[in-house]
Amino acid sequence: MKLIKCHIENFGKLSDFTYDFTDGCNTVCEENGWGKSTLAAFLRVMLFGFRNEGKRDPLENERKRYSPWQKGVYGGELQFESEGKQYSVRRTFGSKSAEDEFQLTDTKTNLPCRDFTQNLGEELFRIDAGSFERTIFISQNDCETFVTDGINAKIGNLAENTDDINNFETADKRLNDLLNSMSPSRKTGSLRQSKDRITELKTQIRNGQEIQNTMESIDTRKKAAIEEREKLSAELTELQERQKKLGIYKDQQAKKEKYLDLRAKMAQRQQTLKEAESYFNGVIPKGEELREKTAVCNQGISVRKAMEIYCLTEEEQAQCKDNFPMVDNARLEEKYAEAQELESLESAIRKNALSGEESRRLEELSGYFAEGMPQEAEIDSVKNAWTNRNEGKSLLQAKEIQRKTLQSIQAQEDARCLREQEEAGKRKKMLLLFGILLALGGFAVILLGQGVIGGVLIVLGIAAVAAALLFTAGRSKVQTGENTELSYLEQEMEELEAQVRIEEGQIEDFCTRWGLREGLELTSWLVELQNKRKDYEALLERQKQDGSDEKTARIAVLQKDLQQFFAEYGEVPETQNYLAALHELAGKCRQRQLLLEKQKKYLQQKQKYEALEEQVKDYFVSLQLIPEEHPEEQLAELESHRKDYEKELQEYRRIEQEIKAFEAKEDIPSLLALKVPEGEESLESLADEMQVLSERMEERFQTIDSYQKQLSDLQESWDNVENMQEELEALQEKTEEGLKQYELLGMTKNLLEQAKSSFTAKYTEPVMQGFRKYYRILTGTECENYQMDANTRLQVVEGNMPRDIRNLSLGNRDLIGICMRLALVEAMYEEQKPFLILDDPFVNLDENRTKGAMRFLTEIAKEYQVIYFTCHGSRG
């Protein structure tokens, strides 16, 4: 089985992502944060679904953790091959599993297929999700593994009928739970609790003989406590009687002090009332009258403020005295209509008549276009020709720069070829000279009798001469011929210059006919020519329209009528803008009317203020008071003193009534003659003594209650002794039966473990062989210190003792876990090899073992399709 392709719509940070898988090793080497672990998780979720969906923490709950960052459809597609048939599985995920959608398609027919269900991973690999993550799926920092029941079932070829092996763990757990619940040694075990209860019952039965003696002793102490409590009660009663007598005296003393205090307060209030009456000169104003005069005074203040608002300035008073005639509104409206008609007629005449400047302009343009007028299309054609000419000039400048560049490059290339020829000539001469010298040396050696050596030297000399001749044979001469690219460029420049000359001829002909002034830029001149053409046509059209004699006559009549109207009111408009003059005249009339109304309101408010002021002054005189400058403040002060007087008077009367009621109720002469009793202690000391007695009595009550409770408990215990004896006998019998059952369950658990060990021992050796194989590939050494027990648990032998793998370093644990996982996969899938997913599992290995890990990847990729994720090139 293998993966073909995956497409992610949205999953975590990945969106619209597609990856095509190949046989062998598929390496995804990307930087941190790219989404490698997210892609690995997507492959696992497409097969087995999400983990930890019940967790609230979004980092642990994978459905929440991989929810799309950018929203959109949550899910994707995975194409795979199994047993020679290709499938496509599509999943979309909702906020909960009930909202998920699953579709399996046969890619050959593109029709839905039922070969697998939503439990795709379990049906495809014949293992559960936990076993998948302990073997085929190797994630970063989680390389360690352990054998699950699903792995045992798959290795033992029981994938089709795994009830026995898969239920071992369930049965073993139930036996463990039952043994723990019955344990005779654990505190929570039922047998241990029964034994503790038996011991307790035996102790209570032994202590039952002493209960009677204890009850008699406690009863004696209880009677003594009751006698002492009664004695304390008598003492407390005596103290309460003394406290009562002293309390009566304290009450009478308090009443006497209260009466004297009331008399003192009454005398103080009488003095205060006399002082208040002297302020009012014997005439106390009534509150209602004061409030009424205060309202009148406040009204006067408001009226005075209104007077200030309506008071005319000196300039406004002068305007009121001016004898300016008022205009009737109907006549004013009539003149408005005449002025508007006049302005409309004048505007119509002005609109069609040519001004002096316009007439001069028409005469000038008539002379300019005396021999004809150019068409708009002809002017546009010249504009286009001018644009093409400028573009051609710019292009010629650019091509000229390009031509000079090519000529410079050609010159440099010619110089380089000449230098190379000179250097080649020098090398040729040296090689020829060396060859000749070798040949001559060979002849000399032959003459000396060394024929073989001489022959070799002659051959080498000839070879050197031949090499010198061949060295320069392939050299080309300096290229002085025509450069092809340069020729093409010069030809293009000639064609472009010809086109520019044609455009310039057309422009020159047009400018000659219509007189382009010297120094004027062509584009501006063409725009000016177009504007002249438009102005000439517009002025000719205006000239065709004449003015109207009837309008002129009507204008004269209206002007005369309006001038006579303004003469009646002494108004002569400076210009003939009659509408503005009428607006100004109407404004003057409205302003004069407003001033007259304002003056009238001022006089009304003044009269009203004087009447109010007189009322307040008369009131002060009636109170025998001199009116002050600010009557409102004087009234406020009077009201304040009146309120103080009323308050004092009310308090005086209240105290007076209280004294009368007190005298009617109490015996005043007896209270005044009251004296302090001699030799009497204070209420505080009596209360302290009573508190001490009460506390002692409470202690006796508590002691008596305690004795009574002890007697009740002992009596109950005495009554239950026989019941305890019966319970003890029944519990001892039940405990003996429980111990027998406990021993039987222990034997059953041992036999079950022996059966499982016997089953797993059959494939322990093949798994160990696979482990040795992959350990050798990854480290380059043999794993001599490792052994595996019948439960497929790996151990390392150190110090002549087997040690738990968890005691090793993190790097060694990862190395052993990777090898063990591959050994399990090899044992589980002998025929159809699955693909492997490795999410950077070599991150904790040292440099040498990382190199071994790369060899390891190469080797396993020969048998398995590997999807390998890493973030570092050294591990890629």
What is the overall silhouette? flat
Q: Tell me which oligomeric state these chains represent.
A: single chain
Terminal Cα span = 24 Å
Structural class given helices, strands, pairing? alpha+beta
Q: How many DSSP-defined strands?
A: 13
- State the helical fraction: 55-70%
- Number of helical regions: 25
Taking pLDDT < 50 over at least 5 consecutive residues as the criterion, the unreliable ranges are: 158-163, 476-482
Fourth-tier CATH superfamily name of the domain at 2-146 and 793-875: P-loop containing nucleotide triphosphate hydrolases
Rg calc: 63 Å
Q: Which class of the domain at 2-146 and 793-875 in CATH terms?
A: Alpha Beta
Strands of the widest sheet, in order across it, are 2-1-4-5-6-7
CATH topology of the domain at 2-146 and 793-875: Rossmann fold
- What does the largest sheet look like? 6 strands, antiparallel
Percent strand equals 5-15%
